[in-house]
Amino acid sequence: MKKIIITSGPTNERLDAVMKITNMSTGTLGAVVADEFLKKNEDEIECLYYLSTKLSRKPRIESSKLKLITVESTDDLLNALKELLEKEKIDVVIHSAAVGDYKGKYSITASMLAEELADYCISRNFDKKELQDGILEIIRNPKNTVSDEHKISSYEPDLMFKLDLTPKVIGKIKEFSPETMLIGFKLLDGVIHEELIEVADKLRIKNKATYIIANDLSKIGNGKHPAYFVGENGVDFACETKQEIAETLKKIVFE
Q1: Cβ pair 164, 103 in contact under 8 A
Q2: Range of the domain at 9
Q3: 185-204, pLDDT tens digit by residue?
Q4: Which of 47, 67, 107, 184 is most buried by a 10 A CB count?
Q5: In terms of Cα–Cα distance, which of 67, 51, 47 is closest to 3?
Q6: Same domain for 211 and 97
């Protein structure tokens, strides 16, 4: 009888009371994997913990073995994993969650930042108003910008956020429970096959995972989800769909 953890879907990082940073993950793959396990191997499962955000897709199969745990942020996910892995003997973690890379540290308006910069620079004998206006213009119209496809604020034209890196969840799992089998995922976009496999293998070694499942975002869609199971001997399995990924994971975990 196995105790299994599946992490799935995105994490959401709070910016203020209503805004958050998230990503495009839906949690579909994690749900397909959980359904495959419960459909084919329920009698071999003692407990399947499914960690995901509130709006992520959930497994469709109902089972007393399935325990849904709702998380929100990367820190929530990390804390939930720590509690489970340190308190229980977890046999396998399938870490398919699309953990966000960044979280908010603070927000500031361009005017506030420009004023602070001007106060700092005034000691260099610049006229404060002239310097403040110049800095404010640079902040409002920089030569290089980051693409922003989502509306951030309806009222403040110069709202900015400082972001910090989130903790790397995959790197903590074997620290919490060295004997647990870890299977993780690595998603890149538009890279050559050799680079995809190389990056996945480095991630596997660094985090002491049994497998890293390598995916290329540019090739996912229209029912296709090409993936490569990268183990210590290279690519052991290649899949073309989410269902094939789930079936391969079932073989690894239960056979």
Answers
A1: yes
A2: 2-101+167-254
A3: 999 999 999 999 999 999 99
A4: 184
A5: 47
A6: yes
